[in-house]
Amino acid sequence: MGQDLGDRAGQLGSGFKVHGFRIHRFHRWLNPDHWQSWWQGRWQTDWAKLLGLWLLVLLVDRAWFAIDQSAPAWDQAEYLTAALTYADALRNPQWLSGSWWVDFWRLSPKVPPLVAIITVPFLWLFGPTADAATALNSACSLLLLGSVYAIGRRLFDRTTGWWAALLCSVMPGLWRVRLDYLTEFPLVTVVTAAFAALVFWATGGRFGPWRGRLAHWLWAIGLGLLLGAGLLTKQPVVFFLGLPWAGLLAVALWRSRWERVTQGLLALGIAWIVAAPWYQANWLFVLSGGKRATVDSAIVEGDPALNTLDAWIYYLKLFPQHLSWPLLGLAIAGGCLAFLKYQQQLAWPDRPLPSSPTPKGDRRGWLWTLGFWLGAYLLCSLLVNKDWRYVLPYWPVGAIVLARGWLVWGARVRWSLLGLTVLLSVLSWLPPTAAGVAPLVPGPMRVVQWGPALPHAQVVQAVIDHAPYLQSTVGVLPSTAELNQHNLNFFGAARNFQVYGRQVGTDPQAVAQDARSLDWYLLKTGDQGSMRGRRRREAQAATSQTLRQSSELQLVEHWPVAADAEWQLWQRRSPSVTVAPLANPAPLKLMAQLPERLPPGQVAPVTYRWQGPAAQLQGGLALLTWQREPTPDRPAGRTGWIDDRAIGRGRLMTPLPPSTGRAWEVWDRSAMVLPPDLAPGRYRLWASLLPNDPQLGDRAQPIAIPTEATVVIDPAAPAQPAPELDGVAQLRLLGLQLRSGRSGLESVFNTIGRINQYNPNQTYVAQAELTLRYRLSQQPDRLGWRYALGLAQVLDRNTSGAIATFEQITQAEPRNPWAQAYLAVVRLYEFQTDAAWPAIQQALVLAPRVPEFHYLKAVAHAQRWELGRAIAELRIGQSLEPAATQGHHPPIGLIPPTS
Fold first, then answer.
1. Above 60 in pLDDT, residue 41?
2. Measured by CB atoms within 10 angstroms of the end CB, which terminus of the chain is less buried, N or C?
């Protein structure tokens, strides 16, 4: 026994095995000589070359960005704005707050947020600019080159890995996205890095100095982290990595290699842990956005149908665009030459062949690279929506195949063609030579733009100069790569989110609303850009004409951008909200200006003028009640209405500039809805301030009204022109339409989408929710308000509050099937299938022929994995659709599209 203990003590000094793992001496891991010998012996020379290649690519890329003065286009600007949004959120993180994390993941409901999140450090270091954000691509480039080299070296040899990295650095398809801020280049990087981890995991590669079973487990963990990162970058990562992972898992199951199966499932579990929080918070947007991004986009863009040959050779025809003809041609020629030499060797096996640069083949390497590439090609071809960017992630592995073809040739040929490819790429960037080299480097042109930058920043500055204390929304009419709502919105976000850009003039039925709902509009002469569809083009032209001819607008500034085009900034002569400092301090008070007499049942103009300290004005919610003054007679009808709103519509900048000892004045030129059943008589305004901080309680504080604020309601009074209603008022009205069911749903969604264009940060939703909750605490029997509260809670994704609200509604009117349906929708959104089931059944009992209720039942079956029953209910719902809408009317939705 003593001998055994002595042997074990010796093992502790030299390393011993536990469950198959060799645990080395800890002092060996911490010994710098051990790491230095590993580095020098295996990687130093190759990684030094790769680092030099990366530095050269970095130098070229930075030179490009220093020279190029182009503005980010549509997608690029949208992703940049998302990065700025996350940069703002991460300035004051609350790591231990669950609600903060939920809100954090919801900042990007449609696009996975990893690219935006990892861009934040670059924005903090170099400033909120597009060039600073593209530094992320430079970092990704280093990881990409290293991953490609590692795969090539593992599957073939060092030379293959080196040349594959070289080809990746000059491949036109890759440098086009490397010179843009898009999700594609980070996706290319994470797919390649994850495939490298997959290869090393499956083939037993070392993990740094570790080898054997421990290395297998470490690679599995790394694979899981990279898969999770891929899912948080872009969902198509599964098209590139799903088949290799599933194939390896299937082989491990077939051979009963249970440890390998466990490792593969561990990788999948880690990936889900990494990506699940975002998907759980935004799953509905992912599903609805996936259909719009695939099926709907394919129809609009005219992509080939899957039952045609064009669908399956679509990406094959794009090879020259991705690779350029010199790069592709030499690889094809090298492959043909290698094949001929192989056939010659088969025909005359005893005849010695002359020395050849043909590298020795590796069956395992070809199986991995071609299997990955062909699987990804087929899965991407199965997608109905196609674009040249969608398949770029398979080209780094494809570069290994190309490198094998290039290595058939001698070094002089290879370096000559590589130099030619680089030269052609550079010439394709320059305006004088781009068209000339386009046949050899086909594809989307990426031409450097010289001269001064476009005046986006000047537009934003002009808006801020005229409204320094307000958040402003600019309606953008044109939609070109140089000027669109997204890039103007990005430049406004870079100025502390004080200016937003939103596209207007796309709906012929909303021309009038678009023309009177904003204070700022940006127009352009000449080419108006890519307006798809005749109706959209007509709406854009009609809106532009209406704005230019309106007497309520004035041209503030204009910027010539070309010989035949200029940008024009228009402002409303009497803006809806204005803010100005007062010379003396003043308590909070309110004055109202409106016509003396108004008819009931109309939208009436009203101007509220607030004065008071900034602390009360900023974010303050006002409960405004117009109450009939008592008279001896008691005419029939309603005796009051409400016009609750945020002070300054919630657009005051936070915080306002210091004004010690001074107050502020806020003008709100708005409108209010007069109920049609108002009793005639004189009505007086009463006002209270609802605290905007929950810690201050929910007691409303009276607001002084120093001058008389009254109006006479007279059915004989003429109607008065009024501006557009604010978002809170419109949301209150939508409660009545929501109550009516299917007939009002389309109008509800259209109205919400339009309000979101005018109110980009959608503060009106929280404002309506808080004011309605207070009103219902005083008057709980107002069912229309309760429907509006439920809608506001749904829009705010306050599902627990929405469930409580719709439960109260179903108790108040149990015979309304749509109330039951709304309750079921919110419960299904939270995956409370069993709790939603009684509401679905009750809705079907009350209205069995409403297709939406069958769709809800299908969703409930799907959540229970009863797919057969789900399909059956879906077909029943489709059979009940009106003939004009069969196959086109969507199931009842939970959240309308946001802007």
1. no
2. N
